[in-house]
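Holo prediction — manganese (II) ion.
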Amino acid sequence: MKKEYIDLLKKKCGEDNFRKIEALNNEKMHDFVAKYIELCNPEKVFVRTDSPEDYEYVRKMAVEQQEEKKLATEGHTIHFDGYYDQARDKSNTKYLLRPDEVLGSDINSEDREKGLMEVHGILKDSMAGKEMIIGFFCLGPTDSEFSISAVQITDSFYVAHSEGILYRSGYEQFRKLGDSGRFFRFVHTAGVLENGVSRDVYKRRVYIDLEEEMVFSTNTQYAGNTVGLKKLSMRLAIKRASEEGWLTEHMFLMGVYNSDKSRKTYFTGSFPSACGKTATAMLEGEKIVGDDIAYLRQIEGKIKAVNVEKGIFGIIRDVSRDSDPAIFESLTKPGEVIFSNVLKDLEDNPRWLNDGRPEPVEGVNFSGEWIPGKKGPDDKDVPYAHKNARYTIKIADLENCDENLENPEGVEVGGIIYGGRDSDTNMPVEQSFNWQHGILTQAATIESETTAATLGKEGVRTFNLMANLDFLSIPIGRYIQNNLDITDGVENPPLIFHVNYFLRGKDGDFLNGIKDKHVWVKWMEKRVNGEVDALKTPCGYIPLYEDLKQLFKEVLDKEYSKDDYEEQFTLRIPERLAKKERILKIYHTKVFDTPHAFIKELEDQRKRLEECRAEHGDYVSPFVFSGGKH
Ligand code: SPV
Ligand code: MN
């Protein structure tokens, strides 16, 4: 270690913590840690290794410092983010780029030098009087081809605690990394706290420095902005993956059984926030590996995936014993859970929106003391819990945790599911003709009606390719090309599917029940294993009525009528064509490196749709299409 650091680190860290840092024989890491200790100027520093004592210290301090409060059930705590700090802040999240670098107009950026100066100014003395925590983690299972080492500096015990739940400890791995190893770096300060929440949200920044593989986050607590290893690391990993020929995706990873449970097929799934992604990964009777982020690699001619995380930071709303039994059960039994931005009722129980119980009449929530009819500082009605309220749990604590969660080799992906929130265009489930057709017409064209998971207006239809647009750190065209290339040389690539859980009928009501997604998933499992045929439409393959009827009976014990099938699987040609126009316009005006194959694939689909319309009209019943072995 450089001489000039030794005194500084010893003074701030104390002997024990100093030794923990010194033992990591990595000069780049020492430089990083010393630089930010000097700049942020904490009163003291805690270094978290992989030991259970260190884990417990962080957990205990989160409560002692009142960033979390204990709830009635053993192991449960609650954390509040500020009234204006309830979601990812897209407008203040920026890539720091040199003048000659371009990512494209849909990706927020800032001049690197200017941005670094600004954020360093905000960080200066930001931890005065506070304790800094330095944590070492591993993205992906440890000791794996997929592993990435990462170090997090934060002044928030809530953030450090969340990371302990969500990520694998990586101190030992850092030791093995040695001096030459690369790692991701995150620096976070919650800034000045007032009533336990970040006061100066106007100085909220999330700045990403791709060159140094480092992200800064200031004056915010919401985990999507602060937990470095989550969405911040994703941006760094997308860049690194692009350089190295693999993929970082906004995907769950789950194992789906056949009917007698003699076979398990792994699926990944990419959905924008709050579109049923976690609920799919947690389907009763199936197995979960992950609910949010996956790394995919081609290994020995197969597509393999791992969960980058080992926990869930899930939305908690509309979760009841009836709708999501597996999640509900894990959130109500004793065990380690951090709830955020739900209501703490008078008995210290967490209450979230639409939890299947009578609404609470009093409590404390993200706005302070709450009673019905309360108005917020912006004069808006304050619901008893926030729509983007969350829970943080370990996957290993779930009964449906998959045995391969920690498998360093990952699991083979049989199918990939893309979805969005779409009221009028796509059918509940469709399969693409092949890999390229799926990536280009289904994944690269995802649109979703906005939700409470990001700040801003809800219900606006927005383009979000692969549900990954918010996190892209490379130009869109290159990202699409990487997705096309990953299966080069793979004999049997995963099948690609598209789902829509939010389709509505003429009267505006949802056409499907909340549990119907299980049927679609089971149908996809059968398709991957060649057990059912399909109908060929201009846009892809769809299920036969008889197969769904049987699955509805088997999975949900429900009768599925021909009328329901016909309404749900009618090809809505005007809406499909309108979507194509919207998407092509985006690619023509905002994307500078669209792969040629994309335009051709969309144009071919347009032609097929127009021919179909000439023959059958605007709205085409699924019974028109022919079946067979597709
Ligand atoms: C999402 O919004 O996609 C999430 C939660 O998974 S966040 O960490 O905010 O990104
Ligand atoms: Mn997510």
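READOUT: The radius of gyration is 24 Å.
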